[in-house]
Amino acid sequence: MRIALVEPSRTNRTIVSRLLQEGGHEVRSFEDGPEALEALASDATLNAVITGSELKSISGLELVWEARLLSGPRRFLHILFMSSLKDEAAVSEALDSGADDFIAKPPSPRELRSRLRAAERMANLQSELMELAFTDPLTGVLNRRGFFEAVTPIVSDASVAFSAMLLDLDFLKEINDLYGHDTGDVAIRTLAGVLREKAGGVAGRMGGDEFALLLPAHCLKDAADLGEAIRRQFSAARLRTRDGSVSLSCSIGVAELTAGKGLDHLLAQADLALYHAKEGGRDKVSTPPSHEWIRGNARARNRVARSSKRPNRPPLDGDTGVSPQRV
Hints:
Elements: E1 2-6, H1 10-22, E2 26-30, H2 33-42, E3 48-52, H3 60-71, E4 78-83, H4 88-96, E5 101-104, H5 109-134, H6 144-155, E6 162-169, H7 172-179, H8 181-198, E7 202-207, E8 210-216, H9 220-236, E9 238-241, E10 244-247, E11 250-256, H10 263-279, E12 285-286, H11 291-295, H12 298-309
């Protein structure tokens, strides 16, 4: 593990650092809390903190509290609190402040290493759980929740221009009906593979046969050009079935962020562009259609009305994260 050791005593820092290094851990040692917090904020690879209760400018409990806030929901950070106090109240206060474990000071070398081995097991378990929570198991790209978690900080940076792309695998229902869902899954994985190879943005599977791609530093033309490259490469792929090889195609809608608008509006525009591509015969890349086209298409008007009332947001707890099949 990469450990931030916070201990005001130089002698104690040296002793504990040596114990940790002998156990195969990498150690960054700090004399006081604020410098340790600064390191934790700037170095996300630090995944453990060992701190005493009595520091210089802040208390060990304050350090624990602030470190826990820094870790956030997706970063594993194991906090081991050291104290010469062994009463039950001291242990409870440390754990309630955000510590994961407690050890007497000075620590026993054997106990310290055992507790860190337990922390490593927890780190591995959390990593696996995070993978399951934010990754689509069929394709290996982000799932809907993972996609929104990843793109929200990007969109909040007003200094970055970006575009979005929505992709829909054409005729997946027919492939499933004729050749089975296993073959349909191969088609979905093939499209995800093309996205990983060609796209440099953040890709996610929104559910079913739909994928989304956020493209920082891409204007509308750049996004459309990339979409065309993805479409051509996917169309060149062949799907093996019991009746021989079958050609594949996808429809793509691209949109560029409008000044003063946010992610919901951007994805709604990309969704409208995707619908335009599918209405235009599929297997093509489309930008948002004109207002005249929307006014002349009742279903397009309904999509615009629905998108204005229902924002594209991460699913609530309990939501399956699977969007309904497009019509």
